[in-house]
Protein 1
Amino acid sequence: MKMRDLYSGRTVLALGLLAASLSVQAEPLRVVSSFSILNDMVKEIGGDKVMASTIVPVNGDAHSFEPRPSDAKTLASAQLLVINGLEFETWLPRLQQAAGYKGPQIVATEGITPLAFEGGQDDHADHSHDHDHEPAHDHDHQHVRAEEGEQAHSDHAHSHQHGSQDPHAWQSLGLAQIYVRNISKGLEQADPANAEYYQRRAKDYAQRIQELDDSIKTRLQAVPVEKRKVITSHDAFSYMGKAYDIRFIPLVGVSSQAEPSARDIAQIIQLARREQIQAIFVENTVSAKLVEQVARETGAKVGGTLYSDALGVAGSGVDTYLGMMRSNTDQLIKALQP
Ligand SMILES: [Zn+2]
């Protein structure tokens, strides 16, 4: 046979395996992520071997998300589910039940040592079934970390459940490397025929993440450490703050849903004046009302929009994770540069 002459037995075997794998996995793997940032990471690593979709949409607030029937349908059709973990997706158990999804699940933060909620903010409640608590609940605790003594929250009665860990680990490009490894591993396991493809793309993506991380560190050298303090809407930036020595002072807690008390706001305003904080940022997933009030009363300028828990719409430049991290850095440097 001509074939025998042209190909070694090994090549024929490899071609046979390839053909077999193509017939098994001709359709892209259907991967559903809980929110848009993970969805982008899945697309980066999965390329054209995956059909990626997200449950919480772009500019959506995952903390207050209420799944719709169409989300159950999306999840029901998934072959792989990717979530953040660290109790970020409080709405997920109900949705999983509604969808009857029993397939594999990747927890993107697996292996990360999470930051504790500084100040023990208690607003990470499962708001999906906890609304009745809200009016009676007095958020009488401080959100200003530097100002916080034990006394400030020791008398605070916790009336509802919340996570004790900060889920916003994607705000650190260093920790995003762990996300990439976990997602890649999950894709490889769910679709072994394309394992090498995923590994190659994950490696390339990890490289680009590293380059952005390095360039942010270099660029931030233009801002003296003592100037690196800003006010944000909700407490989503602790990981970024830790990575780059920036002090983020949140108006509300780790969830975007808490209503700060008048006392909380007064304390933030005092702190902003005392520390001469230059900039206060709006977030894409949180109402700007409070930010504008604090800006008015302190003379701090509204520095722009930081992307915290969701990407922006397609074509906005903040429609990818790397684009979002780049944009957040640009906004911060612009506002803080002396
Ligand atoms: Zn958040």
Protein 2
Amino acid sequence: MSLITVNEDKCIKCGLCIKECPTFVLKMGQKGPEAISADSCIACGHCTAVCPKEAIDNIKSPLASQINSKDFPKLDAAEAEHFLRSRRSIRTYKEESVSKEELTKLVNIARLAPTGSNAQGVSFVAILDTKVVKEALEETIKWMETSQLKDRFKGLTNAYREFGVDGIFRGAPNLVLTTADKDFSRGRENSIFSLAYLELYAPSLGLGSCWAGLFEVCALLPDSPMLKLFNIPEGKRITGAVMVGYPKYSFNRLVDRNPLEVTFI
Ligand SMILES: Cc1cc2nc3c(=O)[nH]c(=O)nc-3n(C[C@H](O)[C@H](O)[C@H](O)COP(=O)(O)O)c2cc1C
């Protein structure tokens, strides 16, 4: 089967599919676009998405799997700024656990993040059971108490042992991990983009999240105890972690960062 099919009655030979192809897979033929090298196609979907006539289909990114962007409202600049700036790291959560359905919605957006060469390669492990998050907390603390960095973690580990304070997951009921093949060099960076999408989308579902960087210090190790705890398949590694739950408090103000540093040349 060929990579693309072109509906010759609909195609106006505008060439947009050819211009937008990132890997120069297409050329214009007598009857419309033709594939030069199917192997180079990275399944990004640009050719089908840009076509003004829905005249081209691509087996690696079928038209049927795409949705019309006109069905969605477009944010104006102020709405977009508010959307991006109102996401906050959440560190106080309600006890209520997030349902499988809601966590599925979250990771289903996370998987849409951009990745180099559209390689993707990120899988998700969503921890529904709060008891498992607590086990991960205990295991992380144990690891911290014996690691070479134990002095650095003393404040955290003592607070946990003496007062039961969860400085790792901040009481979040749920956790989302990313995993990738051990030998996939872009596993970590692709996971970061995915989890950034997840964090941005979470407030739209009434959820809050926080990057679990302290947990990652242990979880991302090649011999991490978390691989067994979360049944990570042989050949995969943990590449990222974000805690998730319903925020207990809301934030009334949008904070600033360091002053903008930009050079124009
Ligand atoms: C890679 C990374 C690791 C982080 N790790 C933690 C963490 O372990 N615990 C925590 O409370 N916050 C963690 N954070 C959240 C940052 O502290 C937070 O993003 C920063 O203070 C800015 O605040 P905001 O996210 O609310 O805008 C992490 C953030 C990133 C990007």
